[in-house]
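Listing S7. Sequence submitted for prediction.
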Amino acid sequence: MLPVSLFANTFLLTTLICVWNGRASLARVLRAREEKLTALAKGVADSSAQWEQFRSRLKHDLRSPLQGILGYADLLAAEKAGALNQKQKQFLEHIRAGAQKIVDVLEVEHGDNA
């Protein structure tokens, strides 16, 4: 009876050691994956911040001159610099419509619908 009991205990001990080693190995794999995911999440956050900074600069760099164009177009339309003929008025409306369309796209793109 002793040899069977010794065999069973040895088998049980060996099994427990294998399970324990497997758990340790699994824990190492999980830690490594967690570190990779953390690094990827940081990379995504950094990229997102850079993208938002780029969009903000682009919005400012485009909107400022377009507002100037619209301002001068309004002055011309009010004929502050002199009378415009019909063809000039048509050209002016194309300029105003195009500039306003870009301003509107910038506002929608950036969620500034106010």
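Caption to Listing S7: primary sequence and predicted structure tokens for the chain studied. Residues 46 and 88 are 49 Å apart (CA to CA). The chain has one domain: 2-109.
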